[in-house]
Amino acid sequence: MPPTRFIGEPINVEFAQPPLFAKQPPCPARFVWGEEWFEIVANLQEWRDYGRRGRMANNMRPENLLKAAKRGSWGVGRYYFRVQVSNGRIFEIYYDRAPKGQAQRLGSWFLNREILPDGPDEEVKSEK
Description:
128 residues, mainly beta, six-stranded antiparallel beta barrel
């Protein structure tokens, strides 16, 4: 596994075309982290995690839990993207479908980590 630097900060994203379904977004075209814009030039990998977290972890009958883990349910799950940006850096970003209250029902985007060039195989803390 390549070395990574954990970041775990919210980001804003833009799409080439608006997503057909807001809770099932494709890979964005660009994102802003802090005050810096990053243009995505390649979507290297994507995956979904419909695991239930926090208070949602125990609010479903066991017989429905397996179905929900495969296809998701409202407000539960994350869409992950490993992307390369125009300056060559590689990041892992994700969309968290969980609403953050009445005003923010669509979920949030996060910059999870940076995949570092070959070097020591360990996770490095963010120094931004």
